[in-house]
Amino acid sequence: MTTQTEDGVIINLERKINESYDIIIGSELFPGIAQDLVLLKDESKISKFAIITDSKVGPLHAVRLESCLIEQGLDCRTFSFKAGEKNKNMDTVTRLLNQLGEAKYNRDTLILALGGGVVGDTAGLVAALINRGVPYVQIPTTTLSQADSAVGGKTGVDLPAGKNLVGAFKQPLRVYMDVATLDTLDDRNYRAGLVEVIKHGIIQDTNFFDYLEQNMDRILAKDKEVLIYLAKQNSRIKGTVVEKDPNEKGLRRILNYGHTAGHAIETLSDYELLHGEAIAMGINVAGTIAYLSETGFGPEDLGRQNRLLERLGLQIRIPQHITNKQIIEKTASDKKAASGKVRYCLPSGIGDMMEFDGVYSMPIEANLVVKAIDMCR
Ligand SMILES: NC(=O)c1ccc[n+]([C@@H]2O[C@H](COP(=O)([O-])OP(=O)(O)OC[C@H]3O[C@@H](n4cnc5c(N)ncnc54)[C@H](O)[C@@H]3O)[C@@H](O)[C@H]2O)c1
Ligand SMILES: [Zn+2]
Q1: Closest residue by CA, ligand 1 atom 33
Q2: Which atom of ligand 1 is nearest to the CA of 181?
Q3: Which residues line ligand 1 (CB under 6 A)?
Q4: Which of 131, 245, 354, 363 could bridge 341 with an S-S bond, Cβ 3.0-4.6 Å?
Q5: Measured between alpha carbons, how far is residue 363 from residues 180, 245, 331 in Å?
Q6: pTM here?
Q7: Which pLDDT tens digit goes with each residue over 263-303?
Q8: Buried b / exposed e across 133-145, counting CB within 10 Å, b at 16+?
Q9: N-term to C-term CA, the chain
């Protein structure tokens, strides 16, 4: 109730919201998705379906998904933008908003984000903005988006000033992980996305890490049964962290393991390296810092971590042309702080992260970081 005060009015807007959602995991899910959406339409105000996808996933998968929906009598259209991180920007968002607006996609719309993390992040932001927000469903089609970006409700795009600088927390209505879509993903993206999977093992779950060690060959062979198991474990691990800390106040930071140095390396490579490829190097750096700081993450743990990353066929050594100074400067939040301390998320063993002063990151001196980087060359 609105309260009158001496110098004005208080608007009381305390409210409970329930943003729970299902993640449905399997293979060849498209016909089932269409049937689910018929039920959703009957029990909600949703009457229009907009698939947002990119120029690569469009012909491979969106055409098929659209026909499944149309076969079920649903009103569905596909809106596509050019594939690539370069296009994860406000121009694309504006164009999509205009296209949806012109096609009269109003409050009765459900957006289906079909693609990798670029599509998920962009379409999620469009869903948060159009008509002050409509529901959206994530249908991730890369190893990275199935392991990471489709769960958690972070949406957003890049600005010229930097990556992911504009966005919104917007939880999906549902997520469908169809491992069959991974069949068409190129080998490089397939392997790079699996770095986030290894990250999940290190930050939360020893048994899962063991499983990855034992089943890496089947994972690389795209064995469906194994991929379904992976998607389930990844969703469970990321979901547990997000549930405890939906707005990234503390615990959720552990998901950034390897991302401090990793992001710097990714930018310094001029995005020649894929996200996962740079994060693999960042995980090597952070693991080495943990080992040097005696967090309990010993040489054996570091060895196991790095061997598993290398089994993905990834380079975990930092390229010589990226200098220590550049990495130190990029990781410092402002240039003046470059000689000061930067916070790193550090493991205390395989399956456990260090808690330091109630937070899950630790300030590390630049000279220790340099020592670790040198050991990772
Ligand atoms: N929201 C989050 O929490 C979160 C977390 C991690 C990463 N991200 C974001 O995710 C993005 C990276 O995601 P990504 O690695 O999936 O990249 P991406 O979406 O660019 O996909 C990689 C490439 O694969 C193509 N592709 C996608 N699915 C395919 C398929 N099934 N078959 C053939 N080609 C396919 C795409 O068109 C693209 O060319 C980054 O922008 C990153 O910031 C977001
Ligand atoms: Zn990442």
Answers
A1: 185
A2: 31
A3: 54, 56-57, 60, 83-85, 88, 115-119, 121, 141-142, 144-145, 148-149, 152, 154, 164, 181-182, 184-185, 189, 193, 275
A4: 363
A5: 42, 21, 12
A6: 0.95
A7: 999 999 998 999 999 999 999 999 999 999 999 999 999 99
A8: ebbbbbbbbbbbb
A9: 62
